[in-house]
């Protein structure tokens, strides 16, 4: 684990920094042991490449997601900034989903609803030969003329990375000329095997060029690193006389500037918050709340106590914990009766999955399996209190079928056959359509804050009841839908068989 | 190099994209039953095209081989530095093992094209073994998904149909290949293509519709050479394919720029095709009569509302959308409903050589109505032009996309989302064309117009 280096223009990708993997097959405790969180946290200096976890990567892959998409959904969602995509038009297609998410997010948080501000430089074949810094400059001028933004982000793309566009020098010149931060974000899709590097790329740029260097502090301000989720933190924090500074999505540039002035930083998911929270502590002295994530009673208790300690509000926090326990426990007892005997499955990003499994177990729902899209053996702080997988195992027990699969639907089929859940929790697209063809309903968690804290246990229980009612639709569909996978594949017991035995692709006839 | 602005102030910049890239035509592959796309591209390319074209555009869905099913190389640093041919080879090999498909189409993306991967060499090895697989050079910098669509149809024709079609010289009178809307890009393509097929069959033809649920899939493609002629129903998309087929199989084509909406246009359309084909018009005429009877039965009842609704209806309109729908809607709105055109913006980057002919069509919308059209792709300019338009004393109705919602609010108008992206519409088999689609369109327009009135 090295320190975060904000002097570099490009963010160091997750696989180098944290040892991130995208394919693994086993039990939660095996993965945890092999990740060696504490050893690494205390400094695994001999291993420059981070973790040496074995990856179960095979020859077959289905389309996943890239870092640039995460830049669109973070930098592109800063309210008074503009994101420029220096790329051919295909990357611009991402403007459509992220606009929809942005608009709905704005409405959910009570902001004025309006279109996302992303400009594509629309690179063409000749630009690949001659370069296109002129177009980049033009788009920066267009952004300035159209929106008078408080900051301009520039996202790179696979083609600009390959042809070697000198984006940094253009950004520097335009920053001087316009007098606002002009921030290059290096997020070529090919540069990292996992899209979460795109979160880091955005946060890196914000930390380098937007966050104020001042030493002024606001002792009641807490940074909350989140996405578009509903505002559950403001009412909660009010009980401790704390104010919320939501970043990065839907923040204003001045919200981002004051990140350095906060009393603490928290996140709902270490996958998302790891980089920025650690860097704020390292470079600006803003303490990161290092605790289990706020899911389930054990996690939420510990998280709140640590927040209380860091912000010197221990007493208020204890009062809140006692009050909330008393309030939600009867509700949860009722829910447990309704949810009795159910089996759930979690398929989301890494740290978020750990949290959701905790909440399901809190509701006495059986969770025998989970698929996470990637695994970070360690988060940036290296602090063992952030060992979310370890916390899950220690407090809520083993998950026997724990798999890392970067949204590979063909593997998900086998995993579902193995675990046979009654429902799944998902976040990213791609897996639920398959589950539904097997008659398994999915609760898509668009509002990522739904399961947080004590009320989150209740919320998730209710969401599951809603979604179980959909089972009628899925059962009907199951009888009529055709799966795109060959019988040979559907009969495989091990979804990772091709990674373990790649020679099998030669052993079978090519055409059936 | 300095960038020049056009007359509207458009530079290279594109806000609010209104199409995907050439790789986005992977959804043309997905729309052929039994066909499976394989992406030789970066990890996010397939997903971006999916979430924009097939999800937040009417929530059309991934179908059999789209969404997270589509295999992709997910190219990383290694493929960029050392080339990705080996990786593609193992992906194809494993795809054939895992995915059930009648035809596989490899789409080369930006990375593969820029590092110079010889995708053709990798694929031809499988073609020689008799695997139904083709490849297409669809780097995103080559253009949009309209361009990509014709690259792909040509690739399938040249590398698959040509090889597997039997009796390529055999022609069947009355069999037509139809080339019209761009699948998935046009939010209503599924319903529209099935209405198009229904109309042509009603007139006495047999129809290779080629895309969507009414197509017999890859088998149908093998009968392309047997068609009497190709029918292109759009201002420009499909012409390239039709010309290619003319050269290849000496197969003629009929170009009808206006996709028919409503009874008048549809009857004219049917008669034009029948006349060109030289088949007996009796079937067509009795079909038209029957359809008109039904169509005007509904219009008669709609008439009470249209002539007596107290609370006001919009009189003027603007259409923002790709060439095919834009022109079709204009013809219908003017001729059937008597609405007044105020601003027409075509957003699909129609090739320069067709723009004059397209503009001419707007000069003769009706015998007494003409209007002009602007070709714009940048959403910021679209918004600017709409805001500069004088819509008269009442707020207009805007036929556009989700991007127009903010502008429509400013104009206090009504919006009907008719194209990519339509993120606030759920579309299954809805159609806005032909006889049946026109009725649905009328319902949609006036529900939008009055639903917010109290």
TrEMBL record, chain A:
<protein>
    <submittedName>
        <fullName>Nitrogenase</fullName>
    </submittedName>
</protein>
<dbReference type="Pfam" id="PF00148">
    <property type="entry name" value="Oxidored_nitro"/>
</dbReference>
<feature type="domain" description="Nitrogenase/oxidoreductase component 1">
    <location>
        <begin position="75"/>
        <end position="467"/>
    </location>
</feature>
<dbReference type="InterPro" id="IPR000510">
    <property type="entry name" value="Nase/OxRdtase_comp1"/>
</dbReference>
<dbReference type="GO" id="GO:0016491">
    <property type="term" value="F:oxidoreductase activity"/>
</dbReference>
<dbReference type="InterPro" id="IPR049939">
    <property type="entry name" value="NifE-like"/>
</dbReference>
UniProtKB/TrEMBL annotation, chain B:
<dbReference type="InterPro" id="IPR050152">
    <property type="entry name" value="ChlB/BchB/BchZ"/>
</dbReference>
<protein>
    <submittedName>
        <fullName>Hydrogenase</fullName>
    </submittedName>
</protein>
<dbReference type="GO" id="GO:0016491">
    <property type="term" value="F:oxidoreductase activity"/>
</dbReference>
<feature type="domain" description="Nitrogenase/oxidoreductase component 1">
    <location>
        <begin position="22"/>
        <end position="448"/>
    </location>
</feature>
<dbReference type="InterPro" id="IPR000510">
    <property type="entry name" value="Nase/OxRdtase_comp1"/>
</dbReference>
<dbReference type="Pfam" id="PF00148">
    <property type="entry name" value="Oxidored_nitro"/>
</dbReference>
């Amino acid at each position: 684990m090295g320190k975060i280096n904000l002097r570099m223009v490009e963010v160091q990708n997750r696989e180098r920094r944290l040892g991130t993997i995208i394919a693994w097959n086993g039990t939660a405790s095996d993965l945890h042991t092999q990740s060696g969180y504490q050893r690494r946290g205390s400094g695994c200096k001999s291993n420059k490449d981070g973790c040496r976890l074995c990856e179960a990567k095979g020859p077959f892959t289905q389309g996943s997601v890239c870092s640039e998409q995460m830049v669109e959904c973070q930098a592109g969602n800063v309210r008074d900034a503009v994101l420029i995509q220096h790329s051919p038009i295909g990357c611009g297609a991402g403007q459509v989903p992220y606009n929809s998410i942005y608009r709905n997010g704005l409405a959910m948080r009570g902001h004025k609803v309006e279109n996302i501000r992303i400009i594509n430089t629309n690179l063409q074949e000749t630009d690949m030969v001659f370069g296109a810094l002129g177009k980049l400059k033009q788009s920066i001028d267009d952004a300035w003329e159209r929106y008078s933004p408080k900051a301009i982000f520039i996202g790179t793309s696979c083609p600009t990375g390959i042809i070697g566009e000198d984006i940094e020098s253009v950004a520097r010149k335009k920053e001087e000329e316009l007098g606002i931060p002009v921030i290059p974000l290096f997020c070529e899709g090919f540069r990292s095997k996992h899209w979460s590097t795109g979160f880091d790329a955005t946060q890196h740029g914000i930390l380098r060029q937007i966050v104020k260097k001042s030493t002024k502090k606001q002792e009641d301000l807490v940074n909350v690193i989140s996405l578009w989720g509903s505002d559950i933190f403001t009412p909660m924090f009010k009980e401790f006389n704390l104010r919320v500074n939501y970043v990065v999505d839907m923040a204003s540039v001045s919200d981002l500037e004051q990140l350095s002035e906060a009393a603490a930083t928290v996140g709902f998911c270490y996958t998302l918050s790891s980089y920025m929270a650690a860097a704020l502590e390292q470079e600006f002295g803003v303490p990161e709340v290092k605790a289990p994530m706020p899911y389930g009673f054990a996690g939420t208790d510990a998280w709140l106590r640590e927040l209380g300690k860091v912000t010197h509000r221990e007493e208020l926090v204890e009062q809140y914990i006692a009050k909330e326990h008393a309030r939600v426990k009867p509700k949860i007892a009722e829910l447990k009766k309704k949810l009795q005997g159910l089996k759930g499955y979690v398929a989301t990003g890494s740290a978020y999955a750990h949290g959701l499994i905790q909440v399901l177990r809190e509701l006495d729902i059986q969770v025998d399996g989970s698929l996470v899209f990637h695994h970070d053996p360690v988060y940036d702080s290296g602090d063992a209190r952030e060992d979310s997988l370890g916390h899950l195992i220690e407090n809520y027990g083993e998950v026997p079928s724990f798999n890392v699969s970067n949204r590979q639907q063909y593997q998900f089929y086998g995993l579902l056959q193995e675990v046979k859940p009654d429902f799944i929790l998902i976040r990213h697209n791609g897996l639920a359509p398959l589950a539904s063809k097997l008659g398994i309903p999915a609760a898509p968690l668009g509002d990522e804050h739904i399961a947080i804290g004590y009320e989150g246990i209740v919320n998730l229980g209710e969401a599951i009841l809603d979604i179980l009612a959909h089972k009628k639709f899925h059962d009907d569909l199951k009888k009529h839908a055709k799966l795109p996978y060959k019988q040979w594949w559907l009969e495989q017991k091990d979804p990772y068989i091709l990674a373990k035995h790649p020679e099998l692709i030669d052993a079978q006839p090519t055409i059936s | 190099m300095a960038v020049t602005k056009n007359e509207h102030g458009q530079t290279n910049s594109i806000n609010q994209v209104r199409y995907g890239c050439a790789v986005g035509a992977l959804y043309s592959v997905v729309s052929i039953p039994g066909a499976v796309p394989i992406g030789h591209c970066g990890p996010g390319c397939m997903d971006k095209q999916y979430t924009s074209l097939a999800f937040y555009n009417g929530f059309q869905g991934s179908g059999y081989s789209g969404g997270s099913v589509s295999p992709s190389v997910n190219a990383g640093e290694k493929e960029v530095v050392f080339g990705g041919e080996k990786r593609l080879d193992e992906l194809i090999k494993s795809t054939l093992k895992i995915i059930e498909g009648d035809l596989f189409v490899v789409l080369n993306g930006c990375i593969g094209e820029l590092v110079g991967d010889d995708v053709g060499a990798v694929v031809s090895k499988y073609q020689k073994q008799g695997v139904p697989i083709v490849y297409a050079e669809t780097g995103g910098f080559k253009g949009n998904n309209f361009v990509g669509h014709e690259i792909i149809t040509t690739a399938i024709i040249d590398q698959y149909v040509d090889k597997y079609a039997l009796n390529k010289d055999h022609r069947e009178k009355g069999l037509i290949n139809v080339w019209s809307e761009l699948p998935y890009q046009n939010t209503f393509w599924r319903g529209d293509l099935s209405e198009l097929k229904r109309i042509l069959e009603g007139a006495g033809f047999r129809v290779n519709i080629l895309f969507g649920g009414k197509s017999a899939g890859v088998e149908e493609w093998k009968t392309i050479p047997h068609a009497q002629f190709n029918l292109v129903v759009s201002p420009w998309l499909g012409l390239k394919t039709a010309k290619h087929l003319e050269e290849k199989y000496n197969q003629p084509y009929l170009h009808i720029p206006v996709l028919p909406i409503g009874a008048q246009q549809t009857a004219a359309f049917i008669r034009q095709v029948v006349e060109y084909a030289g088949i007996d018009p009796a079937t067509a005429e009795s079909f038209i009569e029957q359809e008109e009877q039904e169509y005007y039965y509904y219009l008669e009842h709609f008439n009470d509302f249209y002539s007596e609704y107290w609370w006001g209806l919009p009189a003027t309109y603007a259409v923002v959308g790709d060439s095919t729908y834009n022109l079709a809607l204009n013809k219908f709105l003017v001729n059937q409903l008597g609405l007044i055109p105020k601003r027409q913006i075509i957003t699909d980057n129609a090739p320069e050589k067709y723009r004059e002919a397209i503009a001419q069509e707007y000069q003769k919308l009706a015998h007494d109505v003409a209007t002009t059209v602007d070709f714009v792709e940048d959403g910021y300019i679209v918004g600017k032009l709409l805001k500069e338009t004088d819509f008269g004393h009442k707020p207009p109705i805007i036929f556009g996309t989700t991007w127009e919602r903010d502008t429509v609010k400013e104009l206090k108008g009504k919006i009907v989302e008719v194209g990519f992206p339509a993120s606030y519409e759920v579309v299954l088999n809805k159609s806005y064309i032909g006889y049946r689609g026109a009725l649905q369109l009328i319902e949609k327009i006036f529900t939008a117009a009055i639903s917010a009135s109290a």
